[in-house]
Write a structure and sequence with these properties.
Bound molecules: ligand BES, manganese (II) ion, zinc ion
Oligomer: single chain
Number of domains: 2
Number of helices: 14
CATH superfamily of the largest domain: Zn peptidases
Structural class: alpha/beta
Largest sheet: 9 strands, mixed
Helix content: 25-40%
Amino acid sequence: MTLQFSLGTTSPETVDSPCVLVGVYEQGVLTSAAARVDSASEGLIKRQVESGDITGKAGSSMLLFAPPGVTAKRVLVIGLGAQKSMDGARFQKVNIEATRALGRLPVDAVVSYLTEVEVPGRSEAWRVRIAALASDFAAYRYTATFKPREKSKQTELAAITFSAGTDAQVGLDQASAIAEGVRFTRELANLPPNICNPAWIASQAQAFADSQDERTTCKVLDHVEMEQLGFGSLLAVARGSANKAKLVALEYKGGNAGDKPYAFVGKGVTFDSGGISLKPGAGMEEMKFDMGGAAGVLGAFIAAVKMGLKLNLVCVVPAVENMPDGDSYRPSDVLTSLSGLTIEVLNTDAEGRLILCDALTWTAKTFQPHTLIDAATLTGACVVALGKHASGLMSKHDDLAAELLAAGEETLDRAWRLPLWDDYQTQLDSGFADVANIGGKTAGAITAGCFLSRFTDGQRWAHLDIAGTAWDEGRKGLATGRPVALLAQWLLDRG
Ligand code: BES
Ligand code: MN
Ligand code: ZN
């Protein structure tokens, strides 16, 4: 369950709540909310600043329990860093840290005055949206595959009221919808691949469609239907796994009947062992997140439906598992894709593009979309190039690229563009087929994009490589829910 969000304008010293959140900058600069609490409590905050107990360091927190002169039972003072360098990323960070600190307290509701903190170039509505999404992000817990615990006696955070005028309500409702999409994405991606296999993804998509009105429908193609249609590339990848491939297509008709839909396609490799070109053991467990693109586009779809956007949208997920087996596809195989183009397999670990090419062909043909966007954990090279902070964006359409970059900036779910110049295309030359599935040592993220471009001729298309951004690495690394916010914002901007 996502947090419940609401807006309020009661002053922090008189609001009746288990907890209020106020911010303090470095060098003892109090926000106006902190100043009000301070004067109501006869200088409690200033005294703690003077004693060095409250530093204002960004993300730090100090609990004041039952402060005199204040109605609320607790005041949690959050450090904001230096006032002069406050920016969007810091604002997001302090909201995340504030919610983490709240998670350690027995409070089920809080009133946050952090939304009053000025961020240069950003509106109040923006602050409310980012604060809501940051809070819900920090409140998420993965519990699905732990032994069920005794229902904890500790009260858990369930509701946040942000200090802001009613103008921010529309943005807050959108944030709730997007938070729901983000949660769906994170939960699906975090599940282990022995649970989250292609059939599981299909059933989750179907269940969502069933829970909505008739404007939302779901269709699932199984491997037999795909075989009949000629998905030769996608099915080759799936052949080594006992878990059969599925193609999931969600449709949302929120717009006019004649309007061309926007289309998302997401890479749904529920586990990527590399296949016969087997990956090394170390870190292979992270390849359960190789369906992050699928989870991301499904989450963005859910956000769009929950926002009730007045547009038509389709979301297509090719779902397979890439495994080594006696029946696996192999390096040197030549596949015939759905488009008719033949593909020489030089590495079975470059499987994402092989399922996406057929899914892109099918989506373009079936829905004739206005715009086609795919999201995929496609290349390690993209992580080398951009690290964990920006998704790689590739498109031959400057206007579409600009729209997506702007949506990323707005939501702090940023992308950075890489070129798709024809110069790179020759790296995909093959002596045995129309195209090879790998492009050699250099520019691996771009040649993967170039490969996809061969299957999106005539489409207004963009590709997001989210290999670095879809999850946090390490033992306890969780799915991030990216690029749900970016895609949802892009759709919002189209409305
Ligand atoms: N799923 C991987 C890409 C990946 C690797 C994502 C590491 C996140 C972290 C993809 O299927 C893959 O294996 N790509 C290969 C392509 C290569 C064989 C051309 C890669 O990046 O090494
Ligand atoms: Mn791979
Ligand atoms: Zn992969």
